[in-house]
Amino acid sequence: MMIWEEYRLHAIIFSVRCLTVFLMATLRPFDPALGWNPNMEYVALWGVILVHHRLADAVTAVYGDKDGRTTVRQGDNHSPNIQLVLRFYAFYQVPTVLLIKILNFFVCWTPNFY
Q1: 75: which DSSP letter?
Q2: Do the beta carbons of residue 65 and residue 73 sit within 8 Å?
Q3: What angle do CA 76, 4, 90 make, to 5 degrees?
Q4: Cα separation of 3 and 5, whole Å?
Q5: Closest by alpha carbon to 49, among 21, 27, 23?
Q6: Neighbours of 73 (CB within 10 A)
Q7: pTM, full prediction
C-alpha cells in the first residue's frame, strides 16, 4: 500500500491539531478566571485551527499533484465503483465532524448525576 507524502503530512498536521485543541481545552491558557477576556479563548482556538489548515494548504502546494488531484479528488476517469468509494471518502468527514460536535454538546451540557 502506498501512502503519499502529502497525505501522510496532512494526517500528521490534523493529528497535531487535535492534540493542540485538547491541550487548550485542558490547560485553558486564556481562562477568563485568570483575567482574560472571555472571547479570547475562542479567538485563540480559531487561530490555532486556522494555522493548522494553512499548514495543510502549504503541504498541498509543495507536495500536491500539479493537476489538482489528491486522494479524494482523483478525476472522473475511474470506474463508477471507484468514483463511489472516492465520493464516500470525501463525504464521510462531514458527518464525522457533526457527530463529534453533537456528542460534545451532550457530554458538556448534560448535568452529571452522581
Answers
A1: -
A2: no
A3: 45
A4: 6
A5: 21
A6: 12
A7: 0.62
Domain residue ranges of the chain, discontinuous segments joined by +: 1-71, 74-114
Residues listed for the chain:
114
Span 38-78, pLDDT tens digits: 788 888 888 988 999 899 989 988 887 777 666 555 566 77
> Residue 63 corresponds to which cell in the numbers above?
507536495
Cell of 113: 448525576
Distance CA 86, CA 55 (A): 24
Q: For the beta carbon of residue 10, count every other beta carbon within 10 angstroms.
A: 20
How far is the CA of 94 from the CAs of 72, 79, 101, in angstroms? 13, 24, 11
Q: pLDDT (tens digit, 9 = 90+) per residue, 82-113?
A: 778 777 776 777 777 777 667 665 555 555 54
Over the stretch 4-30, which tens digit does the pLDDT of each residue have? 788 889 889 989 988 898 888 888 888
User: In angstroms, rounded to a whole number, what is the distance separating the alpha carbons of residues 6 and 51?
Assistant: 17
